[in-house]
Amino acid sequence: MFEKNKRINYTELKEFSRKVMRKAGCSEEEAEIVADVLVEADLRGIHSHGVSRLKRYVQHIKEGIIEPNKDPDIILETDLSLVVDGKNGVGQYIANKVIDMVSKKAKTSGVCIATVRNANHYGIAGYYAEKIAKNKMIGIALTNTAPLVVPTFSKHMLLGTNPIAFAIPANSKIILVDMATSIVSRGKLELYSRQREKIPLGWAVNQKGKGTDDPDLVLENMKNRSRGGLLPLGGEGELFGGHKGYGLSLLVELLTGGLSLGNFSYETYNKQGGISFFFMAIDLNIFGNAESIKKHIDELLVKIRNSEKAENCERIYIHGEKEYEKRDENILKGIMLDNPTIESLNELDRL
Amino acid sequence: MFEKNKRINYTELKEFSRKVMRKAGCSEEEAEIVADVLVEADLRGIHSHGVSRLKRYVQHIKEGIIEPNKDPDIILETDLSLVVDGKNGVGQYIANKVIDMVSKKAKTSGVCIATVRNANHYGIAGYYAEKIAKNKMIGIALTNTAPLVVPTFSKHMLLGTNPIAFAIPANSKIILVDMATSIVSRGKLELYSRQREKIPLGWAVNQKGKGTDDPDLVLENMKNRSRGGLLPLGGEGELFGGHKGYGLSLLVELLTGGLSLGNFSYETYNKQGGISFFFMAIDLNIFGNAESIKKHIDELLVKIRNSEKAENCERIYIHGEKEYEKRDENILKGIMLDNPTIESLNELDRL
Question: A297 and B260: CB-CB below 8 Å?
Answer without folding.
Answer: no
